């Protein structure tokens, strides 16, 4: 029997959520074992990924893939039902890659903002950093408000665009990101109602 793929995730990571949703959407769940790990404390993870980050995908031959962008494209190549990223160069491919890059970087900023806001030293330099991170996150949400996003025919870019607001709700429940963004709010509501999103929520 061929070795199965091994996907290492944290349930609080937006990038791991992207990989988990991709596994479900591409109908690969029966071929992949998913392991929930703590990337801060799991020493075995670093032996597979020197950055000790999630998600990490270990292929059947033992080689590891990371980060989420590489993993999702690899999963797409395995699926008999590819739907996330158009393979041929063209406007649809660039649209999806642009949205992914924008949403992923904003998720990184949101994660750093979450950590910075729990730093109680209150130094001016830290405050300036928090303001810059906050501007990156909420300016991206503003930009997504003006994008043409699809629930009915969603692809990789749409998925990433929906994961960012979900991560904001998870990390900053006291902030209403929906205010002033009715188009994005309606889109995210539709995406979060999909089975592949409901079955792969943020947790932690």
UniProtKB/TrEMBL annotation:
PROSITE patterns in the cross-refs: GST_NTER (PS50404)
Record Gene3D superfamilies: 1.20.1050.10, Glutaredoxin (3.40.30.10)
Full protein name: GST N-terminal domain-containing protein
Pfam families for the chain: GST_N_2
Residue ranges of domain GST N-terminal in the record: 3-83
Species of the source: Lophium mytilinum
GO cellular component: cytoplasm
């Amino acid at each position: 029997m061929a070795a199965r793929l091994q996907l290492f995730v944290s349930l609080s990571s937006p990038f791991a959520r992207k990989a988990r949703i991709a596994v479900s959407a591409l109908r690969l769940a029966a071929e992949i074992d998913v392991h929930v790990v703590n990337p801060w404390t799991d020493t075995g993870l670093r032996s597979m990924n020197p950055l000790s980050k999630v998600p990490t995908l270990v292929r059947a031959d033992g080689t590891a893939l990371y980060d989420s962008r590489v993993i999702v494209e690899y999963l797409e190549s395995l699926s008999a039902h590819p739907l996330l990223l158009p393979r041929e160069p063209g406007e649809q491919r660039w649209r999806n890659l642009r949205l992914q890059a924008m949403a992923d970087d904003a998720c990184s900023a949101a994660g750093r903002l979450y950590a910075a806001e729990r730093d109680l030293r209150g130094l001016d330099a830290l405050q300036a950093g928090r303001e810059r991170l906050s501007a990156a996150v909420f300016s991206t949400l503003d930009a997504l408000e003006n994008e043409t996003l699809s629930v009915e025919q969603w692809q990789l870019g749409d998925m990433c665009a929906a994961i960012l607001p979900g991560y904001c709700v998870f990390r900053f429940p006291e902030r209403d990101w929906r205010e002033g963004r009715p188009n994005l709010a309606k889109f995210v509501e539709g995406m979060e109602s999909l089975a592949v999103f409901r079955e792969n929520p943020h947790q932690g």
